[in-house]
Amino acid sequence: MQPLLSAGTRKKVLRQYIAFFVNGVLLGLTAWVLQYYLYNLLGAGSPLIYGLSTALTYVVFVLFNCLIQRNLIFQTNVVFYRFILSQVFIMLLLTSLAPLSMSVINKFMGEPYGDRFGFAVAGVLISIPSFLLSRFWAFPDKPGNK
């Protein structure tokens, strides 16, 4: 049985995932600070406000992230409507998962930990589906791409 991807393609995808993950960590750390600031600015204390602050934070980073992914990570043209749809899907997933993550962490470790780390845990959990949507749907390979 032949592998789904050739050895060269596997190396390329692995390199892209590593770059995608590093980009996500750097943007994620910045977003984490902004999300926590917005959460406190909006009144804190509830999963609804946590989800809202997560969504607001995510919107700020979408276009900036698109430029980084297009020019540095995938080095190919973007199918922009697919990128936006994938980002909306990931934002909805993150916005749903972050409050759940916050609640679970709060239940097992105490309230300040969930408030501080729920967003980060949710972000790590969605990194793989986010990469797969970006790599194979929003930034598809075209003949002659690097």
At a glance:
By secondary structure, the protein is mainly alpha-helical. The protein has one domain.
Share of residues in strands: under 5%
Broad structural category = mainly alpha
Q: Main sheet?
A: none
Low-confidence stretches: none
* Percent range of helical residues: over 70%
Mean pLDDT comes to 89
Radius of gyration: 17 Å
Contiguous helical run count? 5
First-last Cα distance:
27 Å
Return the string of H and E elements. Answer: HHHHH
Number of domains: 1
The tally of beta strands, per DSSP, is: 0
Q: What attributes characterize this protein structure?
A:
single chain, 146 residues, mainly alpha, 5 helices
Structural description of this entry:
The protein has 146 residues and is mostly helical. It has one domain (9-138). It has 5 helices and no strands. Helix 1 (7-41) runs antiparallel to helix 4 and helix 3 runs antiparallel to helix 5 (127-138). The longest helix has 35 residues, at 7-41. It is elongated and about 50 Å long.
Topology:
Blueprint: H1 7-41, H2 47-73, H3 80-109, H4 111-125, H5 127-138
